[in-house]
Specification:
GO biological process, one term: cobalamin biosynthetic process
CATH topology of the largest domain: Rossmann fold
Family: Belongs to the CobT family.
Strand order of the largest sheet: 3-2-1-4-5-6
Number of helices: 15
Distance between the termini: 46 Å
Order of helices and strands: HHHEHHEEHEHHHHHEHEHHH
Number of domains: 2
Shape: globular
Radius of gyration: 20 Å
Enzyme class: transferase
Largest sheet: 6 strands, parallel
CATH class of the largest domain: Alpha Beta
Number of strands: 6
Strand content: 5-15%
GO molecular function: nicotinate-nucleotide-dimethylbenzimidazole phosphoribosyltransferase activity
Pfam families: DBI_PRT (PF02277)
Length: about 350
């Protein structure tokens, strides 16, 4: 399934993008004056192959998994919080439940690697294994398990797309997951662990020091090779990160745009972009997280965030908020009048800075 998805990912439709840009340039406004809204509209045209695309159904997918590196004292929250949060997601009372509802989006919750059995109604049970291994002492998972988790994401994307979803968004749940995310950034971005390791859930200096040591140990023990991205994912990644990377690849394979949430989701986007560089063209950066090195992560992937709200919750909250911006961009494309339609005098092209 992974190889099939990769083989299906093609380039953006340049003709549709050109037509969308021509339409935007004809509207009653100075050229480019709606900034990112125009960029998003053109990107959506390229993704879908339709110069005036529609969004009819939106879905946020939250992947949940636990991390063996929790044993190294890298988190202030107890590990059981991963499991305990699942019913709050399903019942719509967690942050992402509220914001997905606000955006008019469906919310899908997937157990891809929670450490304990999950039997909550409404949670999709696609567990690959009960949490990853401790990356400070060995690999997170086998390559086969990493591929299986990637394929959970691809399968989930395709199932939702088959049911009418035409805008996907990523979300995560997993105590200690900023640790493997930072390890992935350090490896793929060739960056100093000490420089990029942040405080996650606002951990104190002692826990931060544990986290830095754990990431450094993970890289030393596992020796991940950035030229082999699936192996890097297996060695220092996470199951929910793999699931989200698969979701992105699955969306790209079916020419459906996917909103990338915060730090963990961007780590998944980084993995997806290394497995298949073309997949980056199908990603939309939702927001810049309050996590210290999210800006580095976005730069390494090549994503531009729409929102700067100092959020750091994860769960898909930023990507849910950005759905309104994406829909707004298409409203402009469909509903704003051209100079000719509105009978408004056009600008003098000779006086426009080229």
């Amino acid at each position: 399934m992974l190889q099939k998805a990769i083989s299906m990912i093609g380039s953006l439709d340049q003709e549709a993008m050109n037509k969308a840009q021509q339409r935007l340039d004809s509207l009653i406004k100075p050229p480019g004056s709606l900034g990112v809204l125009e960029e998003v509209a053109v990107r959506l045209a390229g993704i879908t192959g339709n110069h005036k695309p529609f969004i009819r159904k939106k879905t946020v997918v939250v992947m949940a998994g636990d991390h063996g590196v929790f044993e190294e004292g890298v988190s202030a929250a107890p590990q059981e919080v991963t499991y305990q949060m699942l019913p709050a997601f399903v019942h719509g009372v967690a942050g992402i439940g509220v914001l997905a509802r606000h955006a008019g989006a469906n919310l899908i919750v997937v157990d891809v690697g929670v450490a304990v059995p999950v039997d909550y109604p409404g949670v999709l049970r696609k567990k690959v294994k009960a949490g990853t291994g401790n990356i400070a002492r060995g690999p997170a998972m086998t390559v086969e398990e990493a591929v299986q988790a990637l394929e959970v994401g691809i399968e989930t994307a395709w199932q939702e797309i088959d049911q009418g979803t035409d805008l996907l968004a990523t979300g995560d749940m997993g105590i200690a997951n900023t640790t493997p995310s930072t390890a992935l950034l350090a490896v793929f971005g060739n960056l100093s662990v000490d420089e990029i390791t942040g405080r996650g859930t606002l951990i104190n200096d002692e826990v931060l020091n544990n986290k830095i040591k754990a990431i450094e140990a993970a890289i030393k023990v596992n020796k991940p090779d950035p030229a082999d991205p699936v192996s890097v994912l297996a060695k220092v990644g996470g199951l929910e990160i793999a699931g989200l990377a698969g979701l992105i690849l699955g969306a790209a394979a079916r020419r459906v745009p996917v909103l990338v949430d915060g730090y963990i989701s961007t780590a998944a986007a980084l993995v997806a972009s290394r497995i298949c560089p073309l997949s980056k063209e199908y990603m939309l950066g939702s927001h810049l997280s309050g996590e210290k090195s999210h800006r580095y992560m976005l730069e390494v992937v090549g994503l531009k965030p729409m929102l700067h709200l100092d959020m750091r919750l994860g769960e898909g909250t930023g990507s849910a908020l950005a759905m309104n911006i994406v829909e707004g961009s298409l409203r402009i494309l469909h509903e704003m009048a051209s100079y000719e339609e509105a009978k408004v005098s056009d600008v003098d092209e000779s006086k426009i800075l080229k």
